[in-house]
Amino acid sequence: MRIDLLRHGETTLSHTLRGHTDDELTENGWLQMQSTIQRYVAADTDWDVIFSSPLQRCHSFAINLAEQLERPLQLNMHIKEMYFGDWEGISTQSIYENEPELLANFWQFPTKYHAPNGEPLEQFLQRVKVGFNEIHTQMKIHQWNRALVITHGGVIKLLTCLARQQNIDDLLTMPAELGTLYALNLTKVDNQIHFSEKTAI
User: Which positions are annotated as binding substrate (predicted)?
Assistant: First the structure.
């Protein structure tokens, strides 16, 4: 199965760690996503279904696009961004000024360090895997071969890390630009979900 991962565009709190904070897309953020999608539609990319995070920076665009393309839309609670706890909605600059060592440790070793009262990486990993297990199941039931998944930077970075079979501590070095699309293959072997990288159109 082919999944195309679209990261949401710029939001009103793009200068912060948003996590589960439900901020809105800016006008520019909407245009970032729309211009990306238009290029794929122009290239005759045909998605069978659209899956989306329930957070409005993904969901609001997904609703509009599903209507525009006349495709089914399914929300998946498990593909939300990592939860940053006490750092939610706070800029990295502000965190650096107050907790420089903890922030540096989190950037370099996310498997060992996480935001105060935030979601540990292992928990995030398991949650995202549950989400894509559900997506795989739905695609198999409906015989969908290609899906557009509108989600977050952390989710895309995590899946790219898994697809490249890199150390999970390399998570934050993976690409996930605002409003950009990334292509992966999704398979299930021995009841385990697997990702492999595919060159984008």
Answer: 57
Q: Can you read off the two tokens belonging to residue 49?
A: 């279904």
* CA terminus-to-terminus distance, the chain: 16
Cα(134)–Cα(13) distance, rounded to whole angstroms? Answer: 30
- pLDDT > 70? residue 155: yes
> Binding residue per annotation — 57?
yes
Domain count, the chain: 1
Threshold 0.90, pTM exceeds:
yes
CATH number of domain containing 103: 3.40.50.1240
Q: Are strands 49-52 and 16-17 parallel, antiparallel or unpaired?
A: unpaired
Positions annotated as catalytic residues are: 8, 81
Domain range for 78: 2-197
Q: What is the dihedral of CA 157, 37, 148, 110, to 10 degrees?
A: 10
